[in-house]
Every structure is written in structure tokens, then in C-alpha cells.
């Protein structure tokens, strides 16, 4: 299966996630400016995929120019393109460690980041699937997920959807409820597309229906990805995750977070100091390009929220579950 992001003939190639599900197409990004723009527009998105984008961005810069200071300045632009997912700056830093050895070494490091991401997501999601099978007695299982934490959000395989692939292959999955994920609809557009491609039974629901689905006994476990995990186990993820965790706690449902260890930020003591990206007002005041609010309406549009560790059953990386 094609990777979400890769290096091809001297450029970064991505699956264009803005075009999905209407059109499946790839974009070739030949400059750091094009890559930064693609990250900001969410043409490439999801924390682990952003780790790959960060590392490949440094490779692009290193091949374009042999002045180390200029490459570092470009690397900073890439790292600053989006603030919340720690993987982006982590990927940039990884690739920069080889800068003194020349562009080929930087690219080799970036490609190692891509290979690792696929492998670690596969492992982390296998461990999370085991944990969910232990914690939930019902078979087959009904999972609820938020945003897109599938192969499109990673270099390959996925985190929360990686759990779905493992459980589906083992015959333990009944169906998935996929939150549509307002306002950019990563769940309705991308998660639904991946589940349909894989032949997994699913339904999309408005984010506001998730608590009602739990109350009606339609959910056995909630499983999500992460953008940054603090040292105390607090988790920053797509806006709406915190509300889901509160609802899951109310209904005594396991709430499981799956991520590669590149999403853990050991420098961050708690989620209180995560920088939360605020996005453009038009994402809220318009729908499909049409205005849906009165002229001049002000908005609050944070792209992420922080779920406190106490609401999380386990954060599972490739190293295994961390139970707060
Ligand atoms: O704004 P996005 O689409 O980049 O947000 C993505 C998420 O919040 C995902 O849940 C997270 O990155 C984990 S993806 C494996």
C-alpha cells in the first residue's frame, strides 16, 4: 500500500488529504515552502505523518542549499508550521542530527524515521488491541474513534485505526463508530474512507451524538490517537477528545490512546503547557464555502484539546501500555 508521505525522485510525495474522499491524488512537493503550505492546509496531517514531513523537509532543504545555517533556518520554518503535534519538531531534530554529514545522510535519517513510524505504529496498535481484548468482555467489539488516526495520519498502518485493522483481521470486530470531527471532518472524510477501503463495517456520527451512543450501549471502548503526550500522561489530541473522555468515564468505558513513542514529549510535565493551535475563523463561519453565521461573527476554533491522564485508561506505545 502507498505510504501517506514518502521521498520520490528528489521531492516529497504525499497523498493529498484535502482532496479525499472525492479524489485520490498525490502531490509532489519540491520546496520547503510547498511543504510548509501543505502542512498548514492539512494536505499532510496527523502527528506521526507530520514527523515524517518534518524529517523529509530537512532533506529537501539540505539538497537545495549547502549552507548549514540556511538549512537550519528552513528546518525551523518546517517545525513551526503547526505547533501542537510534537512529532513535527521531533522529525526535524532527528534529520538535523546528520546535517554535518551532507544531504544524503540527512535523507537516510529521514527515511529511517519513515520506516520506524510504520513499524512502531504496527507494534503499538497490536499492544493496544491486546489490552482492549483484556478489558472488554463483549465479542465482537464495537469501537468508537475520533478524528483520523489511520494510515493517512501516519506514514503507514495507523494508530487507533491500527487497532481496528488488528481486531478486524482476528475476527473480533463488529463495527466502528467514527465521529465526523468538526470542523474539518477528518472522521467523515478520511476515517470513513479508510474503513470503507478496508471493508470494515462503520457508521459516521456527529460528534455531538457520541455520548448518546455510549448511553444507548452502542460502544465497548473508545480508541483515539494523540498529538502530544505529556510526562504525566495528559494527552493533547483533536478537539472533542476531552469531551469524549468525560463521556466514556461517565459510562465506565475504557478510553485508550495509541501512539508511537515519538508522540511522547518527556520535556512537558503536564498538558497545561501544550501550545494549542487556533485555526482560521472561516473553518467555523462557512461550510463548503457558504457562510453559515451572521457577518462579523467571532469564533473560538482550537484544533486540539487536552485530556487529563485521570480520564485515560491507558496510553499505549510500541513499548506497551502506560496506565496513568
Ligand atoms: O489536525 P489534524 O488532522 O492533524 O489532527 C490529527 C489528530 O488530532 C490525530 O488524532 C492525531 O494526530 C493522531 S494521528 C495518529
From TrEMBL:
GO BP term, pick one: L-methionine salvage from methylthioadenosine
Keywords attached to this entry: Amino-acid biosynthesis, Isomerase, Methionine biosynthesis
Function: Catalyzes the interconversion of methylthioribose-1-phosphate (MTR-1-P) into methylthioribulose-1-phosphate (MTRu-1-P).
Catalytic activity: 5-(methylsulfanyl)-alpha-D-ribose 1-phosphate = 5-(methylsulfanyl)-D-ribulose 1-phosphate
Enzyme Commission number: 5.3.1.23
Active-site residues per Swiss-Prot or TrEMBL entry: 227
Lineage: Bacteria, Bacillati, Actinomycetota, Actinomycetes, Pseudonocardiales
Pathway: Amino-acid biosynthesis; L-methionine biosynthesis via salvage pathway; L-methionine from S-methyl-5-thio-alpha-D-ribose 1-phosphate: step 1/6
Residues involved in substrate binding: 45-47, 82, 186, 237-238
A Pfam family reported for this protein in Swiss-Prot or TrEMBL: IF-2B
Site residues, Transition state stabilizer: 147
Family according to the record: Belongs to the EIF-2B alpha/beta/delta subunits family. MtnA subfamily.
Protein name: Methylthioribose-1-phosphate isomerase
Species of the source: Amycolatopsis endophytica
GO molecular function, one term: S-methyl-5-thioribose-1-phosphate isomerase activity
Source organism superkingdom: Bacteria
Amino acid at each position: 500500500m502507498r505510504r501517506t508521505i514518502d521521498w520520490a525522485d528528489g521531492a516529497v510525495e504525499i497523498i493529498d488529504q484535502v482532496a479525499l474522499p472525492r479524489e485520490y491524488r498525490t502531490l509532489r512537493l519540491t520546496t520547503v515552502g510547498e511543504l510548509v503550505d501543505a502542512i498548514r492546509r492539512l494536505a499532510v496531517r496527523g502527528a506521526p505523518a507530520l514527523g515524517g514531513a518534518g524529517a523529509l523537509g530537512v532533506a529537501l532543504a539540505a539538497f537545495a542549499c549547502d549552507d548549514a545555517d540556511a538549512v537550519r533556518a528552513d528546518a525551523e520554518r518546517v517545525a513551526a508550521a503547526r505547533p501542537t503535534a510534537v512529532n513535527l519538531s521531533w522529525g526535524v531534530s532527528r534529520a538535523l542530527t546528520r546535517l554535518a554529514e551532507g544531504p544524503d545522510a540527512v535523507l537516510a535519517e529521514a527515511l529511517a524515521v519513515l520506516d520506524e513510524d510504520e513499524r512502531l505504529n504496527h507494534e503499538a496498535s497490536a499492544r493496544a488491541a491486546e489490552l482492549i481484548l483484556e478489558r472488554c468482555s463483549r465479542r465482537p467489539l464495537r469501537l468508537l474513534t475520533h478524528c483520523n488516526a489511520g494510515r493517512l495520519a501516519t506514514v503507514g498502518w495507523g494508530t487507533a485505526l491500527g487497532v481496528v485493522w488488528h481486531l478486524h483481521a482476528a475476527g473480533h470486530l463488529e463495527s466502528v463508530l467514527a465521529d465526523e470531527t468538526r470542523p474539518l471532518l477528518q472522521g467523515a472524510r478520511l476515517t470513513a474512507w479508510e474503513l470503507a477501503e478496508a471493508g470494515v463495517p462503520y457508521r459516521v456520527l456527529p460528534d455531538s451524538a457520541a455520548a448518546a451512543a455510549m448511553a444507548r450501549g452502542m460502544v465497548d471502548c473508545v480508541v483515539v490517537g494523540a498529538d502530544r503526550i505529556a510526562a504525566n500522561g495528559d494527552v493533547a489530541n483533536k478537539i472533542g477528545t476531552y469531551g469524549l473522555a468525560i463521556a466514556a468515564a461517565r459510562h465506565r468505558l475504557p478510553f485508550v490512546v495509541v501512539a508511537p513513542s515519538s508522540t511522547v514529549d518527556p520535556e512537558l510535565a503536564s498538558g497545561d503547557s501544550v501550545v494549542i493551535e487556533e485555526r482560521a475563523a472561516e473553518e467555523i463561519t462557512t461550510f463548503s464555502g457558504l457562510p453559515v453565521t451572521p457577518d462579523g461573527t467571532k469564533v473560538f476554533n482550537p484544533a486540539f484539546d487536552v485530556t487529563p491522564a485521570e480520564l485515560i485508561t491507558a496510553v499505549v506505545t510500541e513499548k506497551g501500555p502506560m496506565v496513568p
